[in-house]
Design goal:
Keywords: Cell membrane, Kinase, Membrane, Phosphotransferase system, Sugar transport, Transferase, Transmembrane, Transmembrane helix, Transport. The chain is of the alpha+beta class. Helices cover 61% and strands 6% of the residues. The chain has three domains: 171 residues, no CATH class; 204 residues, no CATH class; 87 residues, 2-Layer Sandwich (Gyrase A, domain 2).
Length: 466
């Protein structure tokens, strides 16, 4: 049990670290599309965006290294880059046909982060003192990367063939493959491990060779922006769910609330619904019901899978640099296949979500926001970000109980010493908190797009207290 708990925490930290390099994709995709011939036709802007996608593996090695480092130090990122360059160069020397693609960046980033956390404070004898501390991390990373290159030089051939065959199977499975991926993607959201699954689907599975440059790119997202006409099957189906399905859930919750409470919750629900529609960030809505009604969340996962399967079956292909919101929908219209059908499918998805959630909330008496006065968010919201951060820190058991805090797009990822000191109910009563997830000594607090600011505030508070 302890092994599984430790594994879960480590996987969570990798999922969190993946968010840092992924965060650069929206800007790169925007540049890539704005400079395209069918938009502004400015080649240097397209090249600027393409530079990110062309060097995605290197960016992952740097971003994951920094993301895994306990103090987010840049030395871990530099170590990740060194590890990646050594690993890939040595592999090519062993066998020109070996290509780890983005996986080489992920492996190098994890390697750098782990080594940094272990050795960044190491002290060497005085005559070697210059090479101690963070410099020692770079040296160890280089040595480990040589060893990894030798290992992968032997084992990566069969691994590469296996991953290629798995990718081909998933792609060849068509509607079934998209359905399974859609379901798993949502089911992994509560534990924050969906980023790991996404990394394989978006950046590893499937291969496309650019007919002009000869460059080989892998993964559904990479291939879509490289111009692969068959890419986008694992992304298109998220648009109906995120732009229409989640706003329908928010509307269902609003109509299921007591009439006298609707004015109080209307602003909150409208905000999270618009966020989902515009940007494709769905977690603030999902955390409003995933723990209140787990079975209903499973239904949501199945509906997501069906959305992916239906869009693929109808020949719809689309992609995104960040998520399946209206911004990406408009920007990537020119690269998409049959994007107009997403609106029609979305209307059906909206009706399905609204009907199912309206019925289930009332029939099973699910205590969604506004249905019961005691579950209403507090009116005395914190006056500023610092006060909010103080409240959350107190709910986590105070400064002495918190051993680690980081964030992804919408949630705080914390590790605590004593779980019994965490006030789950108190955290949930904070107006800005959308949900709390506990696994072992790992606690996730869903706070929406303010997650990074709150994490920084808490780190500042902890620093000021020594």
């Amino acid at each position: 049990m302890k092994f599984m708990r430790d594994l879960f925490i480590r996987l969570q930290s990798i999922g969190k670290a993946l968010m840092l390099p992924i965060a650069v994709l929206p800007a790169a995709a925007l540049l890539l599309r704005l400079g395209a011939p069918d938009v502004l036709d400015i080649p240097f802007i397209t090249k600027a965006g393409g530079a990110v996608f062309d060097n995605l593996a290197l960016i992952f090695s740097i971003g994951i290294g920094v993301g895994l480092a306990k103090d987010s130090n840049g030395a871990a990122g530099l170590a990740g880059a060194i590890g990646y360059l050594i690993l890939t160069s040595a592999l090519k020397t062993i066998d020109e046909t070996l290509n780890m693609s983005v996986l080489a960046g992920i492996v190098s980033g994890i390697e750098a982060g782990v080594i940094y956390n272990r050795y960044h404070k190491v002290k060497l004898p005085e005559y070697l003192g210059f090479f101690g501390g963070r410099r020692f991390v770079l040296i160890v990373t280089a040595l480990v990367s040589i060893i990894l290159a030798a290992i992968f030089g032997v084992i990566w051939g069969p691994c590469q063939a296996f991953i290629h065959s798995v990718g081909e199977w998933i792609i060849g499975a068509g509607a079934l493959g998209t359905f399974v991926y859609g379901v798993l993607n949502r089911l992994l959201i509560p534990v924050g491990l969906h980023h790991i699954l996404n990394s394989f689907i978006w950046f590893v599975f499937g291969e496309y060779t650019n007919p002009v440059t000869g460059a080989v790119v892998t993964g559904d997202l990479n291939r879509f922006f490289a111009g692969d006409p068959s890419a986008g099957m694992f992304m298109a189906g998220f648009f109906p769910m995120m732009m229409f399905g989640m706003p329908a859930v928010a509307l269902a919750m609003y109509h299921a609330a007591k009439p006298e409470n609707r004015a109080k919750i209307g602003g909150v629900l409208a905000s999270v619904a618009f966020t989902s529609f515009l940007t494709g960030i769905t977690e603030p809505i999902e955390f409003m019901f995933m723990f209140l009604a787990p079975a209903l969340y499973v239904v949501h996962a199945v509906l997501t899978g069906l959305s992916l399967a239906v869009t693929y079956s109808l020949g719809v292909l689309d992609g995104f640099g960040f998520s399946a919101g209206f911004i990406d929908y408009v920007i990537d219209w020119g690269l998409a296949t049959k994007p107009e059908l997403i609106i029609i499918i979305g209307a059906v998805v909206f009706a399905l979500y609204y009907g199912i959630f309206s019925w289930a909330i009332r029939y099973f008496d699910i205590p969604t926001i506004g249905r019961y006065d005691e579950d209403m968010p507090a009116d005395d919201a914190p006056a500023n970000m610092s006060d909010l951060s103080q409240l959350i820190l107190q709910g986590l058991g105070g400064n002495s109980n918190l051993t680690e805090i980081a964030n992804c797009a919408t949630r705080l990822r914390c590790t605590v010493r004593d779980l019994s000191l965490v006030d789950n109910e108190g955290l949930k009563r904070i107006k800005e908190v959308r949900g709390v997830l506990v696994a072992g000594n790992a606690v996730q607090v869903v706070v929406g797009l303010k997650a990074e600011q709150i994490a920084d505030e808490i780190l500042a508070i902890r620093g000021s207290k020594g």
